[in-house]
Amino acid sequence: MSEKYLVQPDLKFIDEITGFGAETLKKCFQCATCSVACPIAPENSPFPRKEMIAASWGLKDKLIGNGDIWLCHECGDCSDLCPRGARPGDVLSAVRYAAINEYAQPKILANAVKDPQKLPFLIAIPAIWFAILAYITMAGGETMTKLFHNFGLEWSHGGHDVIAHANFVSTWLVDITFVPLAAFVVIIFALSLKNFISDIHANAVAEGKTDKTTIDPKGFLLAIKDVLPVIFKHDKFNECEANQDRATAHMMVLYAFIGLFVVTNIFFVVLYIFHIPGPYSQLNPVKWLANISGAALVIGSALMIKNRLSKKDQVSSYKDWYILGLVFALGATGLLTEMTRLAGSEYLTYFMYYLHLIAIFNLFAFLPFSKMAHLVYRVTAMAYASYGNRK
Amino acid sequence: MSKKYGVYICTGCGIGDVLDMEALVDVPDEEGINCTTHPFLCSKEGVAQIQKDVNDGKVNAMVIGACSRRVNFDLFKFDGCIVERVNLREGVVWPHSREKYPALTEEQKDDEEHFDRIQMKAEDYIKMGMIRVEKVKLPEPYKTETFSRKILVLGGGITGISAALDAAKAGFEVTIVEKQSKLGGYAAQMRSQMPVAEPFEQLITPVIEEKIAELQEYPNITVKTSTEVARIAGQPGEFTVTFKKPGEKIPFDVPFPLPPEMLLDEKGNELDAEAQHAKYLEYNKGRLDILKLDPDGELYGAVILAAGWRPDKLKGDTYAHLGIDLPDVITNDEFEKIAAKGKIVRPSDGKEAKEVVFIQSPGKDEDDADFPYCGSVTSQVALKQAKYVRNDYEDGKAYIIYQHMRTPGLQENFYKSIQQDNGIFMTKGAVTEVSNNGDSLMVGAKNTLLGQDLNIKADLVVLANGMVPVTVDDPVVNLAYRQGPGFRDNDIFGGYADSNYICFPYETQRTGVYAAGAIRRSMTIEESIEDATGAALKAIQCIESANRGVAVHPRSGDMTFPEFFFQRCTQCKRCTVECPFGALDDDEKGTPKANPTRCRRCGTCMGACPERIISFADYTIDSIGSQIKAISVPSEDDYDEPPFRILALVCENDAYPALDMVGMNRIDYSPDVRVIPVRCLGSVNSIWIKDALAQGMDGVILIGCKHGDNYQCHFVKGSELAEVRVNKMGDALKSLALEEERVRFAEIAIDEYDKLPSLLSDFVEEIEALGPNPFKGF
C-alpha cells in the first residue's frame, strides 16, 4: 500500500454512469452508512462506500475492474438508509453496466445496445434478416429441397398437414443463424473474461482484498463449482433482506432460461440426429418443461417489471427496461406462437414466431453488451471472490 | 435618605416547616425592627402587603427572607427602596433537611450540648441581611458632562457598512472611517461570493456594491475615506476622537504605556509615579498624554470596530512540505485576486490552470489542525473557488483535500450544490507533499477516503490561508487609555477583539467598543452582515445605558459605579493596573481618574485597593465586612463542642446560581458554611478574609469562575486575580499563626453544580482536621 495512487478522474465516465442511472452519485459524503447497512459486504474493505467515492471522482480504473461491484445484488438497503439520497445501490448497478460496456467487443455494438436511439436498428437487423429467411423458405422451397438433396439432406422439417413453423422459416436457416451467433457470443465472452479476470485480480491485489498473488486455473474452476450452488439457490440474493420478492422473480427467470436451454438442446438432437421434426406432442415431458419454462419466463419477467414500476425509490434506466422488456417479449411471443399454432391460426402464429425470432436474436446477439451479461460477470466475480478468499 | 427598616419572611416553600419561625422573627424583633411573616410572600397579596407598607411610609429598606434573589426579582422590586433578599429557601431549607438535622426538643434548646445548625444558618442570614440594608445606600446615576449619541464605525468593509446601515436605520448618526481611499474592503475585491439568502446554493455577485449604494439613502451616515483614528479618548457617551490621514504623525497620536522593564530603575526597583510619568513622556515624545483632550476632536457615544482582517503569511518549516515557495503554490487570497481579474491562470507562466488542488490543512499527518485563523470560512471559500475552476474550464478539475469541511447552517446547501459538480472532488486527507513535477505540480496525500495514498497532478495548488484579525498587528482602536491603546492580553483570544466569546458576543475588553466581523473571528460575508447588526445593537445599548448612568453589560442596568475616597489614596496604581477593562486612568501623580461609563462594575478595583477607599453605593468593603461580622461564631463558651464556621465568598455569576441549583436538587452540604455572593471574585478584598479569620471563623473559601484559557470569568480577569491574591495571603496568615489551608480558592462552572456540595463539605472536613480557629472566642 506504500505505492501512491495517481488520481486521474474521468469526467466522461461520470457522465456515462450518470446516464446509466447513477445521477445521485455526487451526493455521497462518505459517511459509510451504506457499507454498514449492506448485508453482504465483506468485512475487509467493504463496499459500496469506496465505490461511491471512486465513482464520484470518476476513477474508472478503480471501478471497471473491481470485482466487488459484482458481489452486490442490488437489494437497495444502502439506498434506503443513505442519509444523503446518494443511492449507492443504483450507482453500483450503473457501474456494472459501464463495466459490461467496457469489456464487450466490438465497441460499435456495445454503443448501440446502451443507446435507446439505436433500438430501432437493433430490432431492424433481425427483422430484415428473418424476413429474408422467411422469403427463402416460403418462395424457394423447391430449389432448396433440390439443393439439399445433393448433400443427402432433407430440406423440409415441416409437415404439410400441420401448421409447422419450419414451413415459415426453415429450421435449417434458423439454426444457421443462431449456432454461429452462439459461437460469436461465446468468443466475445471468452475474450472479455480474459481481461476481466486479470483486471479484478489486479484490483484485488492492489486493494488488499485477496491473499492470492496469481490465478491458478484449476483452483479458479473449482471455485466456480463452489459458487454455482450459491447462485442456483440465490443464497446471496436472499441475504439482501429488502429484496425477497425480487429474488423469487429473478429465480423464476433464471430457471426458465435453464429449462429452455435444456429443451432447445434436446430438440436440436432430436431433429438433427433422430430426424424427428416438430411440432412435438404436448404429452412429451420435454414439451412440459418447455411450457413450464415459458410460463416462468413470462411470469418472472412480468413480476420484475411490476417491481421496478412500483418501486419509486429505485432508479430504473434504459439498460434495465431494455433487458426486462426483451425477456418478457421473448417469453410472451414464445407462448403466443405456441398458442396461436394450437389454435390453428396459421398466419398469426407465423407472425408471432417472427417476433419471437427477433427477440431471440436480440437476446443472443446482444447478450455480451446488455445488462444480461451480468450472468457471466457476476458468476466469474463471485467465483473469484471465493477463490481469492474475499472476506 | 432616612432608612425605615422592615423584615419580611415568607413561610411558604417549606421555610415555615423547617425553621422555628418564632425564633427567627425574634432576630429582627430584638433589634426593634418590625418583622412580618407571610405564608406566600410572592403572591399578589404578599407583594401588595409590602407595597402598602412602602406606600404608607413604614419601610424603605427591607430584608426579604424568602427565595433566592435569582428568582422573583421582578416581584420584589420596590422603587426607591433598598431591598435585600435573604436566601432562606435555596440556601437553607432546601439543601438541609430535618431528617438529617432534626429540630431540637424543648430540653435540648437550653443545654450547652445541642444546637440547631439549620436554624443557626437562617438566623445568621437574616442578621447579615439586616446589616447590609443598614450599610448600603441607594445608587444615583452617573452623568457625563457632555454626551454624544453618534456612533463611530472603524472599517468601511462589508461589516462596517452593514453596521452603519443598521445603526442609521435605528435613527443614529454614524461616521464610517476607512483607511483606504474607497469603501468596500476585501468584499469588493472578489469575483463572486457565497450565497447570503435562500436557497443558499449558488455563487452570487458580491453584495458589497449594493450596500455601498445603499449608504447614499442615509443622510445620517458620514463616510471618511483615507482616514484613520489617531486616538479615541474619554469614555462611552463622550469619546473624543481625533482623525488623521493614514501615516501622518500628529500630537494626538495615541501614546503607548511604558514597557514593564522601563518601569524600573537601574537597581531593579520600581520607579515612583512621577519618575515613571517623566519617563513615559520621554518615551512618547511628540505624542500628548492620554488625559489631554483634543479640543478639535469629534464626540462619539460608542464605537463599532469592524477593521477586518488580512491574509496570514505562511512561512517556515511548518509549511515547507507544501511547497510554499513554488510560484504555483498560492493562497486562497492570491487565487481570489487572480479569479477577480479573469480566467484562472498560473502565476508562473500565465497558462490556464485547469487542475487545481485546494489544501485545507497543513497536514503531514501530525495533527488535523487547519491553517491558523481558518474557521469555517476557508472551507466555504475552497468550495467557491473550486467552482471558479469549473466555471472557467469545461474540462477543469478541482480537488479539495480537507481535514474539516465546515459549512455551518444553511451553507450546507451550498456544499451540496458544489458537491454535485462532476469536476469537483473532495476527500479528507493529510497532505504530505507538494512538489514540482515537470511542467506541473504533484500533490501527495495520505489517510484519504480513497483508502490509498494519493498523488494528484495539479497546475495550481491553493492553500486555505487564514484570516488574521488586524488587531494582531496593531491596536487599531488607539484608545487613549492608561493601560494602552489596544486590547490587553489579547493573546488569550488569539488576537481577536473579544472579551468573552460565548457569553458576550461583540463585547471587547473595552466598554463602548463593539467588534463585528472578521476582527472577532473569521467570518463569511453572510455572517459578517449578521454580526454587524449585533454590534450595532450593542453600540446602541451602550449609548442608551450610558445616557442614563447605568452599566451596559454584563451587569446591565446597574446604576452604581466606583467611588473613591481620595484623601486616603496612596497612588499605588493597583486599581488602574488591575481593572480588566482599563476603566481607570491615572494622572502624573498616579491618582486614579475614574471613567464610570467605561466601567463594568465588577469591583476588581475594590478588591485590589489596599487602602479600601473604593466602593459602590450598594457594595462596599464595609457592607460585606459587616455581613461577615454579623455571622455568629459560637465558641466553647456557648457549647461544649461548638460548630465550625466557614465563610464562602461566592461569585454571583456562575457559582451562586450553581449553589442555588444544589438547593433546588435538595443536595446537602455542610450547614456550617455561610455564603455571601460577590459581584466577582475580583472584588474580594483580602480584608474580608482577614476579618473573618480574626473573628474566629475557621476557614474561608472563594468560589468563582474558571480562568486561564477558555476562561469563564464574566470580567475576564476577576477569578485569576483572586487566586493570585489568595496565594499571596499565605504569609500574612502565617504571621497570625494560622494555616494557609484555611483559605481556599476554587473554580466552578455553572454546569458543575453537582461538584459543589462535595467541594464545600470536603473543605469543611479539612478545616475540621486542622481544628478550630485559635482566635475563636476572643
TrEMBL record, chain A:
The keyword Repeat does not apply. InterPro entries: 4Fe4S_Fe-S-bd, 4Fe4S_Fe_S_CS, HdrC_iron-sulfur_subunit, Helical_ferredxn, NarG-like_sf. The keyword ATP-binding does not apply. PROSITE patterns: 4FE4S_FER_1. Gene3D superfamilies: Alpha-helical ferredoxin (1.10.1060.10), Transmembrane di-heme cytochromes, Chain C (1.20.950.20). One of its GO terms (molecular function) is metal ion binding. This is QmoC. It comes from Desulfamplus magnetovallimortis. The lineage of its organism: Bacteria, Pseudomonadati, Thermodesulfobacteriota, Desulfobacteria, Desulfobacterales.
Automatic annotation (TrEMBL), chain B:
Keywords: FAD, Flavoprotein, Iron, Iron-sulfur, Metal-binding, Oxidoreductase. Signal peptide: none annotated. Residues 560-589, 590-619 form the 4Fe-4S ferredoxin-type domain. PROSITE patterns: 4FE4S_FER_1, 4FE4S_FER_2. It comes from the Bacteria. Belongs to the HdrA family. This is QmoB.
